[in-house]
Structures are given as C-alpha cells and as structure tokens.
C-alpha cells in the first residue's frame, strides 16, 4: 500500500510529474478529470483496459494536487489487494522520480505489506509456513519463543539465536558439506531453511530464531518484561 508524501517544492502542472514524454489522449483526459474532481471535493470512478496507463494517470493527478501549494491535499494513498498492481505503482513512482525536472525534489513513498510478505519462512514456503497458515504459525512460534525466554524460562533469547547460528557452523566444521542457509529476497540469512528446536526428543520446543534475535536486540529494560504483540517485527 504505497503512501506517497509531498516534497518541499511545488509544481505548476501535472505534466511536470508525468513520467513519460507524452500521455495517451485517454490518460490526459483522465488526469484532468481527476484533478477537477479533487478540486471540487468530488469522486471519480475510472475504468480502462490493461496497458492504458491508469496507474501513471492516478499518480500524476494525485501528486499534482499534493504539490499544489494552494491545495489542502497532503498524501496520495493507494489501496490494492493485488501484488502486481502494487508493484506497478512502485515502478511508476520510480519512473516519475527519474524524470522530474532537476529543480524538484523527488517524491517519497512507503509500501505497507502483510505478514506473508515479510516472514522469511512464508516468503520461501519453508518451515511449515505458507500463505494459508502464516498468521497462526507465526503466532505459535512467537508464543513458544517467548515462553522459552520469559520469566522462569529455561534459556535466553541470546542463547536461542546463537544456538541457531552455531548449528550452521557445526555443519561446516564437521566435514558434512557446506551449511544450508535460508535465502530470501536474494540474500542469505544466518539460519537454516527450517525452524529450530530447543531441547531434544519429545521434550523439544520449536522456536523462531528470527524472533529470538529480535528479543535479544531489545534494550535490557524491555527484555525484562514479557514482549507484547505490538513490539514484534512479524506482528499483525
């Protein structure tokens, strides 16, 4: 969900914001209709086929209102449940910034996504976590990790995270071949592709090393009390 902020300097025309040399005639008409609707505190329902430039149309019109010093608009807020459409808004915002006149500041953007897009296990379909069960699995992993390191727990967050990392080192040192790291977003993590276990046999407890490291990184005053859901990096 990109949330686009206004920059410092104003622009006098939506054409300065449009990311391509010339709009299609339909784009031009749509932008001008959207600007007019916004000026009149109205609404605009616009329909167009794929490839007609609706995303650039919407951004150009919205940012024109945001950057007008006489306008009351402060943000362009985009809501979509379709990831492909989200990426198109991100790409078009980059295009706008790449082609802005030199005297204008770039437009900032923030994308907010759900748990399935940020949980490393869900992103890679590992650790028994997928798009269908990601919320329940992450909640269970957080709860078990907190129980292990909370008041009266058998270990610490530092120890859990270190244990997960050391198992990779042990594999490499044992001569059994290279360590197998979970990779996500094109980068390796320090942990295995599956979740970790504390203890052995039937008494072992599954935990999340990413959440354990998060707890370990909290200030000492924060780690003395039970972490709430609102402090979780993989929260709601």
TrEMBL record:
Task: Identify the stretch(es) annotated as Disordered.
Answer: 170-204
Q: Which domain of life is it from?
A: Archaea
Report the protein name in the record.
PhoH family protein
Q: Which InterPro entries match?
A: P-loop_NTPase
């Amino acid at each position: 969900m990109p949330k686009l902020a206004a920059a410092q300097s104003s622009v006098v025309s939506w054409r300065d914001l449009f990311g391509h040399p010339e709009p299609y005639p339909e784009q031009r008409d749509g932008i001008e209709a959207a600007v007019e609707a916004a000026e009149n505190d109205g609404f605009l329902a616009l329909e167009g086929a794929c490839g007609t430039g609706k995303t650039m149309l919407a951004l150009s019109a919205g940012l024109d209102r945001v950057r007008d010093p006489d306008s009351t608009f402060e943000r362009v807020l985009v809501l979509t449940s379709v990831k492909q459409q989200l990426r198109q808004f991100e790409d078009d915002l980059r295009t706008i910034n790449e082609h802005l006149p030199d005297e204008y500041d770039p437009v900032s953007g923030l994308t907010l996504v759900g748990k399935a897009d940020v949980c490393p296990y869900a992103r890679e379909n590992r650790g028994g976590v997928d798009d269908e069960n990601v919320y329940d699995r992450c909640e269970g992993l957080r709860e078990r990790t907190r129980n292990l390191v909370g008041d009266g727990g058998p270990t610490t967050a530092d120890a859990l995270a270190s244990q997960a990392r050391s198992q990779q080192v042990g594999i490499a040192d044992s001569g059994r071949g290279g360590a197998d790291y979970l990779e996500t977003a094109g980068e390796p993590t320090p942990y295995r592709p599956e979740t970790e276990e504390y203890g052995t046999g039937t008494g072992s407890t599954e935990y999340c090393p990413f959440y354990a490291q998060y707890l370990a990184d909290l200030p000492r005053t924060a780690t003395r009390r039970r972490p709430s859901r609102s402090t979780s990096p993989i929260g709601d």
